Model the fold of this input.
Amino acid sequence: MITDLNLKLKAQNIKLVAFDIDGVMTDGSLTYLPNGEQVKTFNAKDGQGIVMLNKAGFITAIITAKSSNVVYERAKTLGITKIFAGEKNKLNALKALIEEYNLDVSNVAYMGDDYPDLGVIKAVGLSCAPKDAIEDVRKSASYVSSFNGGRGAVREFCDFILYANNITYESLIG
Done:
């Protein structure tokens, strides 16, 4: 578990947690079926972390450059509050979220892994990159997960935010 006091203080300000999809919620692999349909594989434990954020009252969002039915289906399953799919300029989505929920950038956490995420990573109050994110994103993030995208990075980020806010899974489930 992350023990850095500065990161804990940042996490205590968070009201909204947003995620990229490819390379964050998935391992970045893109599988196409013969009919052209895209298949993505998600980690159930990562998803449980997002469900717990929702139960704890955090606003959750997806900001992704790609748009697919898979993204909408996953968001629906997890109870994601807001989806920005097909969003080429992710900073525009961040601005829309801040305005809609009357937040400050310090109230937003974001997890991304590649160049389209870099502006948001640098702008928000708390940012995280999966262990296998590109170097520029890892260098700019508040912290780097000990897990790769689609392999526990999202869960670690969710757990840290809950932990920093003294919210336990037991209190959310019981």
Residues 131 and 148 are 5 Å apart (CA to CA). The beta strands are 16-19, 31-32, 38-39, 59-64, 82-85, 108-111, 126-129, 143-144. Helices lie at 5-11, 44-55, 69-78, 90-100, 118-123, 135-140, 153-164, 169-173.
